[in-house]
Amino acid sequence: MAKTSSNKSKEKKIDFNDYKYYNNRELSWLDFNFRVLEEAHDTTNPLLERVKFLSITSSNLEEFFMIRVAGLEEQLQAGFSGVDISGLTPRDQLMKISQKTHKMVEMQYNCLENELLPSLDKENIKVLKVDDIDEEKKEFLDNYFQTTVFPVVTPMAVDQSRPFPILPGSGINLGVELEDEKGETLFAFIPLPTIFPRFINIPCEDGTYLFLTEDLLKMHSDLFFSGYKLVEISEFRITRDGDLSIDEDDARDLLIEIESSLKERRTGFPVKLEISKNMGENLRNFLLNSLNLRSDNIFEISSLLDLSSLMEIANLEGHEHLKFEYYSPQPSPTFYGKEDIFKVIREKDVLLHRPYESFEHVMDFLRQAAEDPQVLAIKQTLYRVGKKSPIIDYLIKAAENGKQVTVVVEVKARFDEENNIQWAKELEKAGCHVVYGLVGLKVHSKLLLIVRKEEGGIRRYVHMSTGNYNYITARLYEDIDFFTCKESYAQDVSALFNILTGYSKPPTWKKLGVAPTSLRETFLQWIDNEIDVVKKGGKGKIIIKVNSLLDVSIIKALYKASMAGVKVNLIVRGICALKVGIKGVSEGIKVRSVVGRYLEHSRIFYFENNGLPKLFISSADLMPRNLDRRVETLIPIEQEDLKQRLIDVLNLYLKDNFKARELQPNGEYKRSTRKKSKIFIVQEELMKEAKKKFRKFIKKQEVDKFNFPKLK
């Protein structure tokens, strides 16, 4: 009792609303991108994988400016001076972001110029300059320019009748300074065509020779401005506000409103300008005066702009020795060789861990449902499905086969709006009933419900996941899939679809936690339960694996759990607003971030529950947007072997001593300190385990092999 009173008095003394207890969201995200950048510097990664990591840091940073920095700039312009949970105003945040970002850009180009390009050169992958071009290569480039590039390129003059054009965001542009016959200065632009690769691959037998499209345009710039003296030509790049402005309450047709807003993204206000370090004063001043940018958001670049285009080099064919060893997602022993997937799920719940296990099983589940005469209806949510999708094909086939197909397509999924709108139209055309999301909410939950007529009556089969129904990213993102036909789950999923597609009030959920109605409360309930266990003399433990931790109420609850003596291990890939090592508050909390070959994307929750562990997977991160403004699901995993599997997975993440970085009390992330033990990399271990598990299964029994890659 005395211990409990002491804990209560501690809680009373601490004001958890104090800014000192929280990290800033934007700065925490930048720290994550620094961790990705570390992978580009890491010489233990294959060379082209390092190039890929550098490319990813650039595309990440671009999106960060388009959405997060643009939002802060708008707040600044509106005169908003309120503070975030860490006590920073928009102006404070923008200043700190600028400092960190300029440091990041400097590190990016140091990595490119001093490490990656010289290493590529040694491997006979050369990015050539104009001076490196001999006659044979010049002949090829001249022909390529005349037959392919020149007909597409459109120079844009700027004068009284043609004002400064609204150049698309994120693309490379060439700024041109000219003189006319009278010696007057004129300006023009040449936007690089985006339909061609940035790097031109020059055919050669003795290596891979690449040449930049902008350098090709510079070589032939006289053809665009005949009769004028070309004073200077230099590249620059504008990043624009990319957040869609959608008034959902007034939008009569959400689809039309989003399609209209997508056009605004191409012409949003500028938030960042990258210019060549060698750009002349006249051209530089003309750009700065025309774009009206704060100096903090201007970056002088020493070599090629837009490092995201390095993905073209990273994906070069014929250099497999410079990439990670090929890994083929393994078939699941539970599904492999079984013709009737429904029978497998009737026997027991099934868990898949991708990309270690194959996403083919999910697609095969839907394919079988589309073809099965006993299947009456299919209902599915789609958030990100990609530009090409077998999932869409199977839904269309199901509709053509006379099944009732209902699809909730989230047309507000950021940067996937155009894809999703196109798919929604295709599905509707095929006879599917399509719902374009909900006003005021994004449907982020990953759900597939199949209604089947069987001997005993109607049975419902459910697939729920932490990841999207995208067969491309399923090979790149780490996620958990769960299959069941238990009625308690099926009733909840059916009820949720009724809410999404019709008029129905949320029921009392039997199994699921659902945002925005009950998910936060469910998390808080289980955290409080661990505190109660400790107060009664038991041992409390919480392990959470998520992409982001930002919600203040959850962080406060975790602080209180730590103060009560609950051991808390957090595996947070990206943003983490919680601080560790605060005396008397968070000394019992450890936070680690794993950045590796695959993007960590699953959300797993473990609560010790006094020796009777509770395990959950979820589509939701611990952020206000997920808990308040999205439809999300928390799925309890109750089958004992599946619970143990998730526990084993979490323990492997806590064991990683190479790709894991641990959050320090000062806010920095440091690599896990390895003692004399050998290197342990969780993603490599999970690949090995999946291979070992399937090979062991194959040895035990003969099964028919169908449409899976050969084992490596």
From TrEMBL:
Q: Ranges for the Polyphosphate kinase middle domain?
A: 137-313
> Could you tell me the keywords of this UniProt record?
ATP-binding, Kinase, Magnesium, Metal-binding, Nucleotide-binding, Phosphoprotein, Transferase
* Origin species: Petrotoga olearia
Polyphosphate kinase N-terminal domain boundaries = 22-127
What reaction does this enzyme carry out catalytically?
Answer: [phosphate](n) + ATP = [phosphate](n+1) + ADP
The prosthetic group or cofactor this protein requires is:
Mg(2+)
Primary role: Catalyzes the reversible transfer of the terminal phosphate of ATP to form a long-chain polyphosphate (polyP).
- SUPFAM superfamilies the UniProt entry points to: Phospholipase D/nuclease, PHP14-like, PPK N-terminal domain-like
Indicate what this protein is called per its UniProt record: Polyphosphate kinase
Give start and end of each Polyphosphate kinase C-terminal domain: 340-505, 512-678
Pfam families documented for this protein = PP_kinase, PP_kinase_C, PP_kinase_C_1, PP_kinase_N
Family indicated by similarity: Belongs to the polyphosphate kinase 1 (PPK1) family.
Task: Tell me the domain of life.
Answer: Bacteria
Q: Identify the residues that bind Mg(2+).
A: 384, 414
Residues noted as binding ATP in the record, renumbered to the chain? 60, 477, 573, 601
PTM details? An intermediate of this reaction is the autophosphorylated ppk in which a phosphate is covalently linked to a histidine residue through a N-P bond.
GO molecular function terms listed in the Swiss-Prot or TrEMBL record: kinase activity
